[in-house]
UniProtKB/TrEMBL annotation, chain B:
<feature type="transmembrane region" description="Helical">
    <location>
        <begin position="87"/>
        <end position="104"/>
    </location>
</feature>
<dbReference type="GO" id="GO:0005886">
    <property type="term" value="C:plasma membrane"/>
</dbReference>
<comment type="similarity">
    <text>Belongs to the drug/metabolite transporter (DMT) superfamily. Small multidrug resistance (SMR) (TC 2.A.7.1) family.</text>
</comment>
<feature type="transmembrane region" description="Helical">
    <location>
        <begin position="6"/>
        <end position="23"/>
    </location>
</feature>
<keyword id="KW-0813">Transport</keyword>
<keyword id="KW-0812">Transmembrane</keyword>
<dbReference type="InterPro" id="IPR000390">
    <property type="entry name" value="Small_drug/metabolite_transptr"/>
</dbReference>
<dbReference type="Pfam" id="PF00893">
    <property type="entry name" value="Multi_Drug_Res"/>
</dbReference>
<keyword id="KW-1133">Transmembrane helix</keyword>
<feature type="transmembrane region" description="Helical">
    <location>
        <begin position="59"/>
        <end position="78"/>
    </location>
</feature>
<feature type="transmembrane region" description="Helical">
    <location>
        <begin position="35"/>
        <end position="53"/>
    </location>
</feature>
<dbReference type="InterPro" id="IPR045324">
    <property type="entry name" value="Small_multidrug_res"/>
</dbReference>
<keyword id="KW-0472">Membrane</keyword>
<keyword id="KW-1003">Cell membrane</keyword>
<protein>
    <submittedName>
        <fullName>Multidrug efflux SMR transporter</fullName>
    </submittedName>
</protein>
<dbReference type="GO" id="GO:0022857">
    <property type="term" value="F:transmembrane transporter activity"/>
</dbReference>
<dbReference type="InterPro" id="IPR037185">
    <property type="entry name" value="EmrE-like"/>
</dbReference>
Length: 152, 106
């Protein structure tokens, strides 16, 4: 892409880009909060340990808040997929660090299958209403790429 | 017993998804309350299940089986279509759960 074209594109996209960056930051934060929630719920031992229980409640509210912020901009299905994926992978990897647990190869492989399954499932909803709204964008992008290729 | 706790936690998590959908961005008070109450109940029973399950295992089982439940209920009662994409996801989750169980990791 020529510099001039790039600058115009960047300028027009600037406002949407900012809100989209913030939304993705919120989503990543929500994922991190969700890991904290999972670990704290585990550590609460059936809500008999006070500190872990309070931490769980705080993370529960934080993850809900951050997720709802992110989903104002990001497509719901993509948001849920990323959020659930970060939470599940994080809990599986960090669980053994915090508790008396082991992550064996068999466990890791089957957990990966489950997590890929749930991410895949969450993404499936995108094919309903969002597909129609989003459909023109990729083709426009592809056209722009092709124009760039010709220019280059 | 931990499988029963997990099942109850999953049922409440499915209710969270349904209620959150009706809460209109948390503007509808009644459904927002139901969302939060179900979330609290789901969390409580998840913590009971996690007394036995590893955190990573129990958490993954919980979200993924709830995800399958939401998809299946959506197809049965909320007029959503069960396409090949969703079917693959369901098969992956169920396969993973069975594999986890058969390998003695759950």
């Amino acid at each position: 892409m020529s510099n001039a074209a790039q600058n115009t594109a960047t300028a027009t996209a600037a406002t949407t880009k900012n809100s989209s960056t913030n939304a993705w930051l919120s989503l990543l934060l929500a994922g991190v909060f969700e890991i904290g929630y999972a670990l704290a719920v585990g550590g609460s031992e059936g809500f008999t340990v006070l500190t872990w229980s309070l931490v769980a409640v705080v993370f529960f509210l934080l993850t809900l808040y951050a997720l709802s912020l992110a989903l104002r901009t990001i497509d719901v299905s993509i948001g849920y997929a990323v959020w659930a994926g970060i939470g599940a992978v994080g809990a599986a990897v960090l669980g053994p660090l915090f508790f008396d647990e082991t992550l064996t190869v068999a466990k890791g492989v089957w957990l990966a299958v489950i997590i890929v399954g749930v991410i895949w499932l969450k993404l499936a909803d995108r094919t309903k209403p969002a597909a129609e709204a989003v459909a023109p964008a990729p083709s426009a992008g592809r056209l722009a790429d092709r124009a760039d290729a010709v220019r280059a | 017993m931990h499988w029963l706790y997990l099942a109850v936690a999953v049922a409440f998590e499915i209710l969270v998804a349904i209620a959150a959908g009706k809460a209109e961005g948390f503007k509808n008070r009644k459904w927002t309350s139901i969302t939060l109450a179900s979330g609290a109940a789901a969390t409580f029973f998840l913590s009971k299940a996690l007394l036995t399950f590893d955190v990573g295992v129990g958490y993954a089982l919980w979200t993924s089986v709830a995800g399958v439940g939401i998809t299946v209920l959506g197809a049965l009662f909320f007029g959503q279509r069960l396409n090949l994409h969703k079917a693959i996801g369901i098969v992956l989750v169920i396969g993973g759960v069975v594999g986890l169980q058969l390998s003695g990791s759950a």
